Amino acid sequence: MVHTRLDRGVEWIWYLDQQGTARQVKRAFTSMIKPDDFLQEAAGRCVFHMRDLVALVGMVERLARHPGRRSNPKENYVALFKEILSRSSRIM
Hints:
This protein is α+β, with helices and mostly antiparallel strands. It has 2 domains: 3-34, no CATH class; 36-92, no CATH class. It is built from 3 helices and 3 strands; from the N terminus they run E-E-E-H-H-H. It has helices spanning 37-42, 50-65, 73-87; strands at 3-7, 10-16, 22-26. The mean pLDDT is 76.
Protein backbone atom coordinates (compact mmCIF):
# COMPACT_ATOMS: atom_id res chain seq x y z
CA MET A 1 0.00 0.00 0.00
CA VAL A 2 1.40 3.37 -1.01
CA HIS A 3 -1.16 5.70 0.59
CA THR A 4 -4.89 6.32 1.13
CA ARG A 5 -7.09 9.20 0.01
CA LEU A 6 -10.63 10.29 0.84
CA ASP A 7 -12.48 11.55 -2.24
CA ARG A 8 -16.13 12.63 -1.92
CA GLY A 9 -16.72 10.29 0.99
CA VAL A 10 -15.02 7.28 -0.63
CA GLU A 11 -11.73 6.06 0.80
CA TRP A 12 -9.26 4.93 -1.86
CA ILE A 13 -6.16 2.81 -1.32
CA TRP A 14 -3.23 3.32 -3.68
CA TYR A 15 -0.84 0.41 -4.16
CA LEU A 16 1.81 -0.80 -6.59
CA ASP A 17 1.00 -3.86 -8.70
CA GLN A 18 3.55 -6.54 -9.65
CA GLN A 19 4.92 -4.37 -12.45
CA GLY A 20 5.29 -1.36 -10.15
CA THR A 21 2.36 0.53 -11.66
CA ALA A 22 0.33 2.63 -9.21
CA ARG A 23 -3.24 1.40 -8.91
CA GLN A 24 -6.18 2.36 -6.74
CA VAL A 25 -9.08 0.45 -5.24
CA LYS A 26 -11.89 1.40 -2.87
CA ARG A 27 -11.10 0.41 0.71
CA ALA A 28 -14.56 -1.19 0.91
CA PHE A 29 -13.48 -3.73 -1.73
CA THR A 30 -10.52 -4.93 0.34
CA SER A 31 -9.91 -6.80 3.56
CA MET A 32 -8.68 -3.50 5.02
CA ILE A 33 -12.23 -2.16 5.38
CA LYS A 34 -13.05 -0.75 8.79
CA PRO A 35 -15.49 -3.04 10.62
CA ASP A 36 -19.13 -2.01 10.65
CA ASP A 37 -20.18 -1.11 14.22
CA PHE A 38 -23.45 -3.04 14.04
CA LEU A 39 -21.85 -6.18 12.61
CA GLN A 40 -19.13 -6.06 15.22
CA GLU A 41 -21.61 -5.70 18.11
CA ALA A 42 -24.04 -8.31 16.72
CA ALA A 43 -21.17 -10.80 16.21
CA GLY A 44 -23.41 -13.12 14.20
CA ARG A 45 -26.22 -13.08 16.74
CA CYS A 46 -28.69 -11.12 14.59
CA VAL A 47 -31.17 -13.66 13.27
CA PHE A 48 -33.30 -11.51 10.96
CA HIS A 49 -32.30 -9.45 7.94
CA MET A 50 -33.74 -5.98 7.58
CA ARG A 51 -36.06 -7.25 4.81
CA ASP A 52 -37.48 -9.83 7.26
CA LEU A 53 -38.21 -7.16 9.85
CA VAL A 54 -39.84 -4.90 7.25
CA ALA A 55 -42.01 -7.84 6.13
CA LEU A 56 -42.94 -8.49 9.76
CA VAL A 57 -44.07 -4.90 10.24
CA GLY A 58 -46.20 -5.11 7.10
CA MET A 59 -47.85 -8.32 8.24
CA VAL A 60 -48.55 -7.00 11.73
CA GLU A 61 -50.10 -3.87 10.21
CA ARG A 62 -52.32 -6.04 7.98
CA LEU A 63 -53.41 -8.07 11.01
CA ALA A 64 -54.20 -4.90 12.92
CA ARG A 65 -56.45 -3.70 10.07
CA HIS A 66 -58.33 -7.04 9.97
CA PRO A 67 -58.70 -8.15 13.59
CA GLY A 68 -61.52 -10.63 12.87
CA ARG A 69 -59.45 -12.70 10.47
CA ARG A 70 -59.34 -15.57 12.96
CA SER A 71 -61.23 -16.13 16.16
CA ASN A 72 -58.11 -16.17 18.34
CA PRO A 73 -55.68 -13.20 17.90
CA LYS A 74 -52.82 -15.34 19.22
CA GLU A 75 -53.30 -17.71 16.27
CA ASN A 76 -52.79 -14.75 13.93
CA TYR A 77 -49.38 -14.01 15.43
CA VAL A 78 -48.30 -17.65 15.47
CA ALA A 79 -49.18 -18.00 11.77
CA LEU A 80 -47.46 -14.69 11.07
CA PHE A 81 -44.20 -15.73 12.73
CA LYS A 82 -44.24 -19.13 11.03
CA GLU A 83 -44.59 -17.37 7.68
CA ILE A 84 -41.72 -14.98 8.47
CA LEU A 85 -39.48 -17.82 9.63
CA SER A 86 -40.22 -19.85 6.53
CA ARG A 87 -39.18 -16.89 4.34
CA SER A 88 -36.00 -16.10 6.23
CA SER A 89 -32.90 -17.28 4.41
CA ARG A 90 -30.65 -16.85 7.45
CA ILE A 91 -32.55 -19.12 9.79
CA MET A 92 -33.36 -22.05 7.53
